[in-house]
Amino acid sequence: MVLTLDIPPDLERKLMDRARAIGQDAAQYARRILERDLTLPSLDEALGPFRDQVEQSRISDDDLDVLVEQARDARAREHRDKSA
Length: 84
Description:
2 domains
């Protein structure tokens, strides 16, 4: 498929600069960006299994909030401990 895009000059400059920085032409780099974006799951797709587990667990929103806060706090502590 050949695709023609009309992009603003500032975006074109960024595309050209980034492509040049990795030794590709603009078309190759644009294709690479499209491939990467279109092969990654969407946020809804990525969160689907988690949402299903939460729904099946019948956990309350408040209890889920507590679990998420605890996990976030634990991760922050791990990060601080590694940095110290």
